[in-house]
């Protein structure tokens, strides 16, 4: 009888109900470094000229050339035998396809000879933020005819107010290569550096750059040491005297930044026509296939 009761109770028990787990909701976007908005739009920054105090502070910042040799920042834009005006262009990491496109566009449109023929001799200097051993690769990839240095710690970038972002921004006229092709080109360059151990040494991926024009305080200042009849003390104030060897004295002009543009996205360098107009060069550079974008770029 006891067994029958057990069977009867079991039969009378209601069936167990199991709850169906809720379906997982897929993420609406990929979370990269918890900042997916880094890829949207442009970063808010400004084009204010660095102060005299800032320029004095960064004058002795150390940069490296392709041989790993040290150079002060001031020596890049103010040397005894150098050009009187110098446009310093800061670029992203050495595998960045966007910046490589920009340097290629500069090289195609502006030659060193054309710069030296200007009424005020002018040169262009490029500064990256990766390992100096990658400079040779960068020069070869971009056909860059300009002097190229690097600031591996991005200290100079920071001091001059350049920012860090992954925002893509609008497509500029200097970008001839498609976005995906640029990405794959950069990845290919990085992989080829595996044997040298440089794949992860191209520089800070978030660091973006800008352009800074250095000019003498007075562009009419003569290149030789002036006499009293040429202006005397007033002109002499535009020079910084430094000691040479023995009794020899060399004089360097005091220079200031007269124009600058800080990049707001990963492809926001000043367009080539703007740079050419700034430097006093004829023309607008090499036209692109996108006629509408090109006309928008060269429009006053």
UniProtKB/TrEMBL annotation:
CDD domains for the chain: PRX_like2
Sequence intervals crossing the membrane: none
Gene3D superfamilies registered for this protein in UniProt: Glutaredoxin
Superkingdom to which the source organism belongs: Eukaryota
Chain spans, region Disordered: 1-36
Alphabetized PANTHER family for the sequence: PEROXIREDOXIN-LIKE 2C, PTHR28630
Protein name stated in the entry: Thioredoxin-like protein
Protein species of origin: Beauveria bassiana (White muscardine disease fungus)
